[in-house]
Amino acid sequence: MDLVRDVLDKQLVDREGTPMGRADGVVLELRGDLPPRVDALETGFAVLAERLHPRLEEWLEKIRARWSVRKTARYRIPWSAVQEVDPHHLQIAVRAFDTPAYDWERWLRDHVIRRLPGAGDDDS
Amino acid sequence: MKKWLQLTLGILTSVGGFFDVGNIATSTQAGASFRFQLIWALLLATVLVIFLVEMSGRFAAVSRKALPDAIREHFGFNFWVVPFAVLTLLHLLTLGAEIGGMCFALHLVSGLPVQVWAPVVAVLTWLFLWRSTFSTLENSTSLLGFLTLAFVVAAVLHHPPVREVAAGMLPSLPRHDAAQYWLIAVSLIGSVIAPYLFYFYSSGAVEDGWDSTYVGVNRGIATLGMSFGSLIALGAIVVAGMALAPRGIQVSDYHQAALVLTDTFPFWGFALFAVAMGIACLGAAIEVSLAMAYTTAQTFGWGWGEDLEPREDARFCLVYTGAIAVSALLILFGVDPFKLTILTMAINAAALPFVAIPFLLLMNDAKILGEHKNGWLTNTVTVLIVLLALGLAVVSIPLAVAGGGGG
Which residues does residue A31 pair with via DSSP β-bridges, in sequence order? Predict the structure, then answer.
């Protein structure tokens, strides 16, 4: 498998197929003389910012610390949780709604969207 | 049978989305200042838009992925971030222009100032997106879009000189106001190849569940839909060339553009113009807002889709809500809708390489598209026209800025 082609920037979905961000980063474990091994996937704005420029990440981190909706700026998914790699997505054995990847979605739904009229039935 | 229905609906949709505030502004300006001499720019852009729309539909049907999704996945975030930023800016400016168009239409029938209407128009556009599913949006705005045929009817009723119209189909050098001529040519091209079309269309094809059996339908929709949209723009050039040019009326504002239908339809020409413009801008504003929400959601891997209830894709809804608010503020704070439109259309043409190059690379990837990848003809035509549009934009925009604008 080619990490950059098949993993990095891929769509992530949970076990029900709900989109939950993208593989913004890949964490490798360096093992001395052995080839490095994929340890985890990372997702979150901080990871993207770091890819663009480390200073951008510091700056975003300051903003996040002040208005923190997310508990962490990076959500790390152990490689062992990856259930399936297909041409469209990586399937992760979690429920998206319970993960940090949904912090913003959950917050917006509860504080903004749900308060507007006609946002759909209020059941889940 | 179902495919034929899809084809018809698809053509209707492309007409609904194609003809917008940009076409109204640039076509009437071209006709008023240069009669039929700039028709070639419209034709050139139409050929390009047919190729680009066909490509984006074919890509979505075969790979079942929309463009932003696929571009980020294949080229990585660090590559995509630049086109993504350019697109976001263009989407906001275009949305501002469409909202401004609706405000002007309401100003024309009510007499109240343009700015006053900005909040009303913003809420109206937002309500459509908030409460509708994808197919009701497609069908309602596209049926009403047929009102824009008034431009074609008026053009025919003017009995334009066929030979002069035909002569305009070949490029020629301007006899006066060269800087203005080239700027209008660029804006005219930019109004036809507006990037939101491709991003909306490819995500729409994924929402409609297209697969590779839709490649033929897609070709039909792209060719007929875009040609039909272009026919309406041609109608607007011709009618402006007949109604405004002989009287020496130049279009530097929508008030002059609104005169185009009053010769043919003396009593209700103004109202007809206002209604056609309002509807065309509403249809396009909805498509631009969705294009922006699709692009952002796919870039970051959020849930997206106009068929979900708002509470199922809160971030997607937040993007279009925010976009409408920001764009409406431009108009509320007094940005001139006509100048905003002309400027945005010129930038569309200049930004074309950002939109077209990653897209062309994907279209040539046999791993994704297999037998449906681009042929040499499509590649050659697309590259040539993109380069030509870029060349025109690079030359004419600085000229226009130096010469004091396109008004």
Answer: A34
Condensed to tens digits (0 to 9), the pLDDT of residues B25-35 reads: 999 999 999 99
Residue of A nearest to B78 (CA): A52
pLDDT in tens, B116-133: 999 999 999 999 888 777
> What is the model's pTM?
0.92
ipTM: 0.90
Sheet holding A11-13: strands in order across?
A19-22, A11-13, A89-92, A82-85
3-state secondary structure of B335: coil
Q: Does residue A9 lie within any of the structural domains? A: yes
A10: in domain: yes
DSSP per-residue string spanning A4-71: IIIITTPEEE-TT--EEEE--EEEEEEETTEEEEEEEEEESHHHHHHHH-HHHHHHHHHHHHHS-SSS
Chain B residue numbers with beta carbons less than 8 Å from the beta carbon of A112 are: 314, 318
Q: How far is CA B112 from CA B104, B105, B108, B270, in A?
A: 9, 11, 8, 15
CATH code at position A30: 2.30.30.240
Q: Is pLDDT above 70 for B178?
A: yes
Which residues of chain A have a CB within 8 Å of the CB of B131?
118
- Structurally, how many domains does chain A consist of? 1
In single-letter form, the type of residue at position B28 comes to T
* Domain with A14 in it: 3-115
Does B398 have pLDDT greater than 70? yes
Contacts of B69 in chain A (CB under 8 A): 11
- How close A105 comes to chain B (CA, Å)? 6
Confidence of residue A115 (pLDDT cuts 50, 70, 90): confident
Identify whether A47 is part of a domain: yes
Give the C-alpha separation, B16 to B274, whole Å. Answer: 16
In this structure, is residue A32 part of a structural domain? yes
Strand order in the sheet with A34-43: A25-31, A34-43, A75-78
